[in-house]
Structure formats: structure tokens, C-alpha cells
């Protein structure tokens, strides 16, 4: 949570590409880390709340510093731990968009992430979860969990928002980075 991963850069590009639709939207970034996507949304006029695990105070402090460095001292930062009902989660204001860049990092967290996202979408049925992730293993998939939690996803091609350039999500990390984006929402009663 102390590094801007390539997925954050791609999600920030998506927000910038759709910046005209952001003023007045209510945005929650989960697993914000340095908060790049949420900060871009706030700069574009969205009402943003950044969150990271309540068990990682250094990440929460980093979010606060990022807000101050970007002249966004009014952006709230909350401790929300995936899969855990907390007073902060229960009292969240309505949201239109949930952001998550590279939250699908460790498979042991996948269900907790989707549990939290599902809870938020049940409270906000129109909400969407905009997420980017780095493909780390062909064996990792959230498809079964999406079905279990009655969620559907739409793959968003990177070229559709000019994010298919190597320099955009460039990183000094070893290896090749394949970034994917999807929009997750509640499935209809028939699963579509």
C-alpha cells in the first residue's frame, strides 16, 4: 500500500478519460494505498472517500499525506478491512462508484473483497466496482466468487481509454506487466 502499482495508473487513466462524468459522483476507493485513482477522481470533481485496512495505519497515514500533497485536505480517509463489518462500513454514505486498483493481489483476500463490494452494492444497487489488476497467475480467477455473490463483470479493453501504452503503466518491477480492467455490478435475478 506504499507504492503506486501499474494497475493504479491504468485505473487513474480510466477516470481521467471519463472525467466529464465524475463531478458530483460519490466514490469510495478500497485498498487505496497511495490513493492515485481516488485522488484523480477528486481532482475531477467527484466526492471521494479513500479507505485502506484499519490494520495498516501506515497505509492510512500515507493516504492522508497524499491528500495533503495534492491539495485535497477535505477527502476523508477511513480504515475499512475487507470482509469485516465495522461501524465505519455500516455508516458509509451512499456511493456510485467503488474503485479498487490491484486489490486482487492475494487469492486469500478475493472473497473478503467481494463480500465487502457485495455489501456496498446491496446498499447501493446502482453502484459499480471499477477495478484493475495485474495478471500474476493464470490459475487465479474470481469467476466462481462472482457467481456466488451474484455479481457480474464486464471486461474493459485498455485501448478503449488509451491505456494500452507501455509507458502508461510502466514500472521498475521485474517481469512483464499485463494489466486488466473490469467493471463489476450486481447481476440480475437470472444471473445476467
From TrEMBL:
The keyword Plastid does not apply. GO terms for biological process: methylation. GO terms for cellular component: cytoplasm; nucleus. The keyword Disulfide bond does not apply. Signal peptide: none annotated. Keywords: Methyltransferase, S-adenosyl-L-methionine, Transferase. GO terms for molecular function: methyltransferase activity. SUPFAM superfamilies: S-adenosyl-L-methionine-dependent methyltransferases. Pfam families: Methyltransf_16. Belongs to the methyltransferase superfamily. METTL23 family. PANTHER family: HEPATOCELLULAR CARCINOMA-ASSOCIATED ANTIGEN (PTHR14614), HISTONE-ARGININE METHYLTRANSFERASE METTL23 (PTHR14614:SF164). This is Methyltransferase-like 23.
